[in-house]
Write a structure and sequence with these properties.
3 helices, single chain, Metal_Tscrpt_repr_sf, mainly alpha, about 0% strand, Methane Monooxygenase Hydroxylase, Chain G, domain 1
């Protein structure tokens, strides 16, 4: 259980970092900062979100698709679940 809590804390820290980056974008927009600087901030947020999504997706695969319980599940259902997750990730 502590392993899961440790992973959850890492995800929460990542979210807080992203929130700080979004706040920085808002300050830059209201402060009239240069467009190139704002675009760089936006790219940083996008990278943070993509990294967070990849981590959660990886955890989902490990915790729900590669467990002994998942072996009793229909492989077709597991494949469909994975396809749905990847499609949502790539949108």
């Amino acid at each position: 259980m502590s392993h899961i809590d440790k992973e959850k804390q890492k995800l929460i820290a990542r979210i807080k970092r992203i929130r700080g980056q979004v706040d920085s974008i808002e300050r830059s927009l209201t402060g009239g900062d240069d467009c190139a600087d704002i675009l760089m901030l936006l790219a940083n947020v996008r990278g943070g979100i993509n990294s967070l999504m990849a981590e959660v997706l990886e955890d989902h695969i490990r915790l729900h698709l590669l467990t002994p319980e998942s072996k009793t599940t229909n492989p077709h259902e597991l494949a469909e679940d994975m396809i749905e997750l990847v499609r949502a990730y790539l949108k």
